[in-house]
């Protein structure tokens, strides 16, 4: 009986060791995958910023951009346009920096709880980044688009000989409704793109989080 008890104890000890080794291996695998996902979030955000800058640079050499700039300057909103653009890029750079710090942090996390915490924070920051981009686009599109259309209408009426022109209420309402629908359409289109790109990465982080929760139980 004593030998049997010793055998049981030895088997239990080996079983516990096997479980521990398995959990460590799983943790290492999840840690590696999570680090890779966050790195790709960082890379994608840089690519996104780079594409925006390149597109802006290309457009700056076109007559279309020259006409837009002239119109914005003519309407005395060029300073606001520059300020809004500067704020946008400053916030985007801030988020890119956050993604980089998250990547650095997740690379050195040495236990399950820290890794879980970093994954949750990363998912939160990514969602904030997407929300900011979509909100800024919608706000910018409505405010500047509406103002440019309004001023353009008044200027066109003045050129046609209308003294003290004002936009009729029905045209203003129709224009506002069209602007809202256009904003909603383009915002939704951008959301689908973000959902496709960042959604896949966030889904992988979510799966890693669920696996880590099982280990941490």
Features:
single chain; 217 residues; mainly alpha; 5 helices; 91% helix; elongated; transmembrane
Poorly predicted runs:
17-21
- What would the principal axes of the Cα set say about the shape? elongated
Order of helices and strands: HHHHH
Instruction: Please describe the biggest sheet, giving its number of strands, its sense, and whether it closes into a barrel.
Output: none
Q: What's the number of domains?
A: 1
Keywords: Membrane, Transmembrane, Transmembrane helix
Characterization of the model:
- It is a single chain.
- The chain is mainly α and 217 residues long.
- The chain has one domain (2-216).
- Helices cover 91% and strands 0% of the residues.
- Helix 1 runs antiparallel to helix 3, helix 1 (2-59) packs parallel to helix 4 and helix 4 (112-159) runs antiparallel to helix 5 (169-216).
- It starts with a helix and ends with a helix.
